[in-house]
Amino acid sequence: MDLAGDVHPGPTAGRARAGSGRAAPGAPRAAPSGHRADFDRTGVAETAHGADQGAAVNVKDVRRLDRVIIRFAGDSGDGMQLTGDRFTSETASFGNDLSTLPNFPAEIRAPAGTLPGVSSFQLHFADHDILTPGDAPNVLVAMNPAALKANIADVPRGAEIIVNTDEFTKRAMAKVGYDTSPLEDGSLDGFHVHPVPLTTLTVEALKEFELSRKDAGRSKNMFALGLLSWMYHRPTEGTERFLRSKFAKRPQIAAANIAAFHAGWNFGETTEDFAVSYEVAPAASAFPTGTYRNISGNLALSYGLIAASRQADLPLYLGSYPITPASDILHELSKHKNFGVRTFQAEDEIAGIGAALGAAFGGSLAVTTTSGPGVALKSETIGLAVSLELPLLVVDIQRGGPSTGLPTKTEQADLLQAMYGRNGEAPVPVVAPRTPADCFDAAIEAARIAVTYRTPVFLLSDGYLANGSEPWRIPEIDELPDLRTQFASGPNHTEADGTEVFWPYKRDAKTLARPWAIPGTPGLEHRIGGIEKQDGTGNISYDPANHEFMVRTRQAKIDGIEVADIEVDDVSGDAGTLVLGWGSTYGPITAAVRRLRAAGERIAQAHLRHLNPFPGNLGEVLSRYDKVVVPEMNLGQLATLIRATYLVDARSYNQVNGMPFKAEQLATALEEAIHG
User: Fold this and answer.
1) Alpha carbon distances (Å) from 615 to 360, 609, 610, 620, 631
2) How many angstroms separate the CA atoms of 12 and 609, rounded?
3) Tally of CB atoms within 10 A around 532
4) How far is CA 329 from CA 296, 542, 620, in A?
5) In the predicted model, is pLDDT for residue 19 greater than 90?
6) Burial class, 503, CB count within 10 angstroms (exposed 0-12 / middle 13-18 / buried 19+)
């Protein structure tokens, strides 16, 4: 089963590998079309350059770095997400470890040249294992004054700033509050500023294509991509293939974009303003040998759902309604009908989950995808799924709230909604991935719980994981769990008079799961609905004692779900402080813990995948430490659960600004907690 489709030998795939993949420092470098990277089974990268390309005009200094953080920023129509995605794909192909942070406006097209309309894409890549998109960019590419003003506060002194001088007109600068040009008033003296007329150079490079200045200027993001690809020795063939494919029906546009890309590369090679280029070697020691690709959280989650359906030998059914930031899952799954995937885009959230629950009743691995506002609308049907005890995956890609809130910004504030956001006692398991690639495994785990225990399951991702990306090792089929389950096929109960009958609520002794009976199976007809069921028979029952028994039984089923013990990373073995996280805080927490340990601090770390039920050893783990700190992108929801469940004085460290934690910020807070 090849879930990736274009993984090998596509531009985002490669092998765990070593070697620079470039010419030796100081040697002339070939033009971009002469680059080819091949990855062998042992993890060694071999790079060839066209011998007939000719020497570069200038021989420039090449410096080696261990990591770089680049941020592309511009108007929401400048193609910054595409530019960042292409640079990321080539970086993944080259073999660096990486982490990304796309950041864009909620509006489809915010007013041009304004601060609310700025879109950015940050990429952190390195020759070693990294965990976050980075706290502050080493390089900022600012396509206009708004992009510069919106991002300059994050850029440390001494960093490089590449600005498109063509956009720094008086009108454009006045629109964002610049009284004088920041390129001339000395406010950028602490930075290495590279003024580049990106639009003019792009238009000049595309003269032969007879495009209007406006149409030619749209390729300035490809010019910038070519320049950055030269600066950091990125492979280029993947981008050329991508452009030819993207504009296959418009070959002139494809050729123009490729020409702009080459022009940016050549500009870096020939201009005196860029005297240095940089090499960041592949992260050979960061990955076990295997086939890798760069993957976003939503794509990994989609592949995980497909893999789960294949391992369960069940058709996959998605009943969904588009909502940011979950829509990409619907888009992706709709491409995979060859794997037995059926997608239904409903007219609203309620119809989407209703269709999914009907598919679960019919024997499918059923999924509905949404974000927080959609969960609110789906809550009654989730309660129905609890009552019917059918497997259903509720995928919540969390975003800033309440209500419509911040559609394109991240948050972890739906945990209590997932735990308790239904009427009555309606317990539901909750699973949370910790990185973009981990969304694949989390989806499979959520499916395991759903089909084994016959219950709806919440899968809590968020916008940071959904849109961010990192390298992912494509697993072998035999590494995936066997999720096959048996449908009911005949009577399962004998009456006092010896009659054999089917009881839809007669439970498995170990899992407390009821039988999964497919409609149309002779002899298995039974009543369904939201009214309370009689134990065993499933008949309507208003008996108080039966209701209490059913409530307690449903809770016992969730409490009895087998989940792995939580693992504790306590290098010294005598740490007094434990930092406990869940979901997407894993990267920033781990990076902060590494910083503190490098500074001599003793601190332990643990991260939760299962939030309901908690791991069986969690109480014992918490009792070992004098202090427990819980960083969350909410106002303390997990901390509230920990305090209530284990009577531990868990300390919250919270942030709800729509952005992920920074490692330095967390390190400072944790250090204060250790010594406070």
Assistant:
1) 27, 9, 7, 10, 19
2) 28
3) 17
4) 11, 41, 38
5) no
6) buried
Number of other residues whose CB lies within 10 A of the CB of residue 459: 28
For 608-659, the DSSP string reads ESEEESPPTTHHHHHHT-SEEEEEESSSSHHHHHHHHHH---PEEEE--SSS
Bridge partners (DSSP) listed for residue 608: 582
Q: If DSSP states are collapsed to H, E and C, what string results for 274-324?
A: CCEEEEECCCHHHCCCCEEEEEEHHHHHHHHHHHHHHHHCCCEEEEECCCC
In this prediction, residue 58 has a pLDDT band, given cuts at 50, 70 and 90, of low
Q: Which bin fits 323, alpha (ψ -120 to 50), beta or left (φ > 0)? A: beta
Model pLDDT for residues 88-125, shown as the tens digit of each residue? 999 999 999 999 999 999 887 788 899 999 999 999 99
Q: 664 — phi, psi (to 5°)?
A: -65, -40
Give the DSSP H/E element, type plus range, for residue 202. Answer: helix 198-205
Residue type, 70: I
Bridge partners (DSSP) of residue 666 are none
502-560 pLDDT, tens digit per residue, is 999 999 999 999 999 999 999 999 989 999 999 999 999 999 999 999 999 999 999 99
> Which amino acid is it at 177?
G
Q: At what angle do helices 198-205 and 220-231 cross, to 10 degrees?
A: 100
